[in-house]
Specification:
The structure holds two protein chains of two kinds. Chain A folds into three domains: about 55 residues, no CATH class; about 260 residues, Aspartate Aminotransferase, domain 2; about 130 residues, Aspartate Aminotransferase, domain 1. Chain A has 16 helices and 13 strands. In chain A, the strands form three sheets. Chain A has a seven-stranded mixed beta sheet with strand order 1-7-6-5-4-2-3, sandwiched between helices. In chain A, helix 6 links the parallel strand 2 and strand 3. Chain B is an alpha+beta fold. Chain B has a single domain, classed as RNA polymerase II/Efflux pump adaptor protein, barrel-sandwich hybrid domain (OB fold (Dihydrolipoamide Acetyltransferase, E2P)). In chain B, strand 1 and strand 2 form a beta hairpin. The chains are: A alpha/beta, B alpha+beta. The interface between A and B is small, with 8 and 12 residues.
Chain lengths: ~500, ~130
């Protein structure tokens, strides 16, 4: 351990009065007219370091990043794929960057044209009538979607619909979104082959059913084969179908949620359409609807009238559920998605769907051949699949968590663990379409090697990771004593 | 193999129910349930004085893996909640059938308790479930 030991924060390098002097602004005059009660008693709690100390500290931290740019990242349901640099480069054009969100439409026709075309393309890709780009994240897209379901029932005076059905293989955020919109959640079980249990669905629907939130392919990594039947059952009961776009990557260019019978959808542009996902910054969760829900779409929406683009706002959409943010969604994320989609074209999108599915199935079959147990061995994987390590756990005592931690030592990011909750000791693995066969083969070798270690000396797994800057974290303490803010007193 | 005491009743939602002499019953989650959930970090206890129907969600336990509802095994009124879980949710992990009890309920109709699983039936249910 030297000058730059792990765990140091920028404040630890500070000395009182140290600054990058040459870059300081000229000293401000003494604010003698400020009343004494409004003045600081002490120095502001800012790090006092040299410019080079700041540069080194943050560069070192950035080198600790575990990212898709450096390592294989098969995090199921998160679609950690490569996002072409060109998408970002074009979204960063000075004409886009310099545009103020409150600029009049006349000063941003180019930007509005891109947004309008993106709306149209996303509607076409998903089989929806119209799309609003307003929601600034997936969770906000879900909130907007369920809010529209609520607005639809309210507008018809149907206030008895108090329940949203959520299969246990749906995206994990769905129940929270339903509750946020004032609904009670009724969970539906999954059958042994990974489909929604239709008998349970028939028993659950009724005049209290506002709708169902479904992820297809689901988080168990299979396509819901009874989707048409599900749509009929829910529609016949007077409910609506909500599509969670978490796993859209698998069906891109192949099948459209609108054609499956969904009434409202949200997309995660930060998974499928070229923005890094997973703590990497803002996202975008556009929502799409079919004809019946058009009046309720969140605003603003771009329209094209008489050769000009403009925003549709409150006056144009009196029944809208309203605005999701102060402005019009996350412009940078939307622009990257637009560029990506234009680069891919229709044929490219089919390729995304096919290769993400091919890579997942190749990896699944290789792991099965190596003796790993699949949660749904009779099903073809979509873009992701589940391995259950229950057998390894029973035989060697190594849990899915131990396997996942040991993978970090081998230089791959752990897959999603213990989700969905219905499969014990599970890993949810999604290689995405942007990995080569060599990378995927190397991952298989790593899992085989870890299992061999588990059989020989389980302690290697229990104590993993061995090579990272921090070892096994105390998750209980992290959850109970969240401490993220530095202060001079507590460090 | 997880512990399933013979003197308790059980639900398919992995709660245990102990009938007390004063007509109330004490409810917690089973050893199997705590092992599946992993280390518990938070418990939201039910509000004393509130009445619930059988199968209603009355409390929430949260572990490092998941948040799960705790259900009322039979209809009744909450008469006491285990306050020490607020500071020490890990009691559910270390002593699920003792210190880790979650709440006490006065059943609307004591006969309802007869419909719950006995230890053998619960054990069988857990084994069938994990196949």
């Amino acid at each position: 351990m030297g000058l730059h030991e792990t765990g140091k924060v920028i404040f630890d390098y500070g000395r009182e009065g140290r600054a990058a002097g040459a870059q300081l602004p000229p000293p401000a005059p003494e604010p003698s007219d400020l009343p004494d009660t409004l003045r600081r008693r002490g120095r502001p709690a800012l790090p006092e370091v040299s410019e080079l100390q700041a540069v080194r500290h943050y560069t070192r931290l950035s080198q600790k990043n575990f990212s898709i740019d450096t390592n294989f990242y098969p995090l199921g349901s998160c679609t950690m794929k490569h996002n072409p640099r060109a998408c970002n480069a074009l979204a960063m054009l000075p004409q886009f960057l310099g545009r103020h969100p409150l600029a009049p439409p006349g000063a941003g026709q180019g930007f509005l044209a891109c947004m309008h075309e993106l709306q149209e393309i996303l509607a076409e890709v998903t089989g929806m009538r119209r799309v609003s780009l307003a929601p600034a994240a997936g969770a906000q897209g879900e909130f907007a979607g369920v809010s529209m379901i609520r607005a639809y029932h309210d507008a018809r005076g149907d206030h008895e619909r108090t329940e949203i059905l959520v299969p246990d293989a749906a995206h994990g955020t769905n129940p929270a979104s339903a509750v946020m919109c004032g609904y009670r959640v009724r969970e539906l079980p999954t059958d042994r082959n990974g489909d929604v249990d239709l008998d349970a669905l028939r028993a659950a629907v009724g005049p209290q059913t506002a709708g169902i939130m479904l992820t297809n392919p689901s988080t168990v990594g299979v396509f819901e084969r009874h989707i048409s039947e599900i749509a009929t059952i829910v529609h016949d009961a007077g409910g609506l179908l909500y599509y969670d776009g978490a796993n859209l990557n698998a069906i891109l260019g192949k099948v459209r949620p609108g054609d499956m019978g969904f009434d409202v959808i949200h997309l995660n542009l930060h998974k499928t359409f070229s923005t890094p996902h997973g703590g990497g910054g803002p996202g975008a969760g556009p929502v799409g609807v079919r004809e019946t829900l058009l009046p309720y779409l969140p605003i603003p929406i771009v329209t094209h009238e008489g050769g000009r683009y403009r925003w549709l706002e409150e006056a144009d959409c009196p029944h809208s559920i309203g605005r999701m943010t102060a402005f019009a969604g996350n412009a940078g994320v939307l622009l990257r998605a637009y560029v990506y989609i234009r680069m891919l074209g229709q044929e490219g999108m089919v390729r995304v769907g096919e290769y993400s599915t091919l890579n997942a199935n190749y990896l699944m079959h290789r792991l099965q051949a190596e003796g790993f147990e699949l949660a749904f061995p009779r099903r073809r994987a979509s873009h992701e699949f589940i391995v259950t390590l229950k057998r390894e756990h029973d035989a060697y005592g190594g849990t899915a968590m131990d396997f996942a931690k040991r993978m970090l030592d081998y230089g791959v990011h752990a897959p999603t663990m213990y989700f969905p909750l219905l499969v014990p000791e599970c890993l949810l693995i999604e290689p995405t379409e942007t990995e080569t066969r060599e990378e995927i083969d190397a991952f298989v070798d790593i899992l085989v090697a870890i299992r061999e270690e588990a059989s020989r000396d389980p302690e290697i797994l229990h104590e993993a990771p061995h090579t990272l800057p921090v070892r096994r974290l105390d998750e209980v303490r992290a959850a109970k004593e969240l401490h993220l803010r530095w202060s001079p007193e507590t460090g | 193999m997880s512990e399933v005491p013979n003197d308790l009743k059980y639900t398919r939602e992995h709660e245990w129910v102990r009938s007390e002499d004063d007509g109330t019953c004490v409810i917690g989650i089973t050893d199997h349930a705590q092992a599946e959930l992993g280390d518990l970090v938070f418990v939201e206890p039910p509000e004393v004085g509130t009445s619930f129907g059988a199968g209603d969600a009355v409390a929430v336990v949260e572990s490092v893996k998941a948040a799960s509802d705790i259900y009322a095994p039979v209809a009744g009124e909450i008469v006491e909640a285990n306050d020490s879980l607020a500071d020490s949710p890990e009691l559910i992990n270390s002593d699920p059938y003792g210190e880790g009890w979650i709440y006490r309920l006065r059943p609307e109709s004591p006969d309802d308790l007869a419909d719950l699983l006995d230890a053998d039936a619960y054990q069988e249910f857990v084994e069938a479930d994990s196949d």
